[in-house]
Specification:
Number of strands: 6
Distance between the termini: 54 Å
Protein name: DUF4440 domain-containing protein
CATH class: Alpha Beta
Strand order of the largest sheet: 2-1-6-5-4-3
Keywords: Signal
Number of helices: 4
Shape: globular
Radius of gyration: 18 Å
Oligomer: single chain
InterPro entries: DUF4440, NTF2-like_dom_sf
CATH architecture: Roll
Largest sheet: 6 strands, mixed
Helix content: 40-55%
Structural class: alpha+beta
Domain DUF4440: 26-134
Organism: Chitinophaga filiformis (Myxococcus filiformis)
Length: 140
């Protein structure tokens, strides 16, 4: 019995570390988004999204389907660095839905000379071929 308890206690830190690895990777993905946006680089920003026609982005005008359509909307809404401003995220929740799928809720804020924007987002992020990608984004 003592041996079993010892093995359970020994394994507990490794289980906690494994649970944190996806969260660290997802935080890194969001940090990459922030850095790319703040450099005015929409192409690099979009590498965090699943490059698929099945990507869904839901914004104030409703759903957009597909990676290219999402990029086109970003380019139309944010044609230059003045319109883009400086992006900041605040993660409120990060919950695993499966070992390779996470649900993330947070706040976003754009500081801009033409007027700040802010809102909330919910993301579904999935590990695809070893990389974490946003497969669904609802930002309002």
């Amino acid at each position: 019995m003592r041996l079993l308890l010892f093995l359970i206690l020994l394994a507990a830190p490794f289980t906690a570390i494994r649970a944190q690895q996806p969260q660290s990777a997802i935080k890194a993905l969001l940090a990459k988004q922030t850095a790319s946006w703040n450099q005015g680089n929409l192409d690099a920003f979009m590498t965090t999204y699943w490059q698929s026609d099945s990507l869904i982005f839901i914004g104030r005008k409703g759903p957009t389907y597909g990676w290219q359509a999402t990029l086109d909307n970003y380019r139309k809404s944010y044609p230059d660095t003045t319109a883009m401003g400086k992006l900041a995220f605040n993660i409120l929740e990060m919950k695993p839905l499966a070992s390779d799928v996470y649900f993330v809720v947070g706040k976003w804020h754009l500081q801009r000379t033409v007027g700040d924007l802010q809102g909330h987002f919910s993301l579904i992020i999935k590990r695809i071929k070893g990389s974490w990608k946003i497969i669904a984004d609802h930002s309002s």
